Amino acid sequence: MITSIFVMLIIIQFIIGLLFAFNVVGRNEFLMGFYDAINRLLEPVLRPIRNLMPNTGAIDFSPLVVIILLQIILIVLRNIIMSV
């Protein structure tokens, strides 16, 4: 449940970031505040991944890496629990 919420926050952050980058939506106060709050929640997790990855320019792959790592951890934990 918590991991699903975390993944959804990462996806929402990615989508809002794209909307801002391509000027699809204006930078109104509510959306900027919401985006800022999501960034503050996710930055402690994404920053170490960003530091490990090479610079790819404008595209940030760290959210994708975090989602993949979360899924791998969940699969491993499920297999451990099922084998007990």
UniProtKB/TrEMBL annotation:
Domain of life: Bacteria
Transmembrane annotation, as ranges: 5-25, 61-81
Pfam families for this protein: CCB3_YggT (PF02325)
Key words, A-Z: Membrane, Transmembrane, Transmembrane helix
GO cellular component terms given for this protein: membrane
Name this protein carries in UniProt: YggT family protein
Organism: Qipengyuania vulgaris
